[in-house]
Specification:
With 178 residues, the chain is mainly alpha-helical. The chain contains 5 helices and 4 strands; from the N terminus they run ααββαββαα.
Amino acid sequence: MRQKLEQLFLCFMLYSFLGWCYEVFLEVVVYRWGYSDRGVLVGPYCVVYGFGALLIIGCLSALKRRRIPLGAVNITPVLVFLAIVALTTAVELAASYLMEWTTGGWMWDYTRFSPNFQGRIALNPSLRFGAGGMAILYLIQPFFDHLLNRISVRNRSAAADLLGVLLAVDVAYTLCRL
């Protein structure tokens, strides 16, 4: 049980970090707004991406393995994509309300995208999250599972413990600043 929790936590941290990298890439390279720390916490991670990725993996791995035909065509990847879009959009909407409740606002504004809902969610980012979720489910997670299985249980446990302490300190520091 502990090993499974450690593996889930390491996945959470990986996707939180990749989400932070994605956000910084968008701001610096795509939109050319310049660098800003995109996470709520101090460290280089956006935990909403970690939660979203774990939700995708936990809820959709079984669907991914099924073959659902429509005539001769397997439509499973289309259904997985639509489910990812729905899940990640719901996570983003919930995160915006949670952030607004705790800090008075949220960190993004999608009013420039149409259609959008209160600038909190929009079709364009939701489709990008769908594409990212497909990459997670079909490419990144199988590769990461392979890497984790090659690391000794002791080293994997040490990495999870270290990252857990760092995250706990970061959360405590951030809560004290509110």
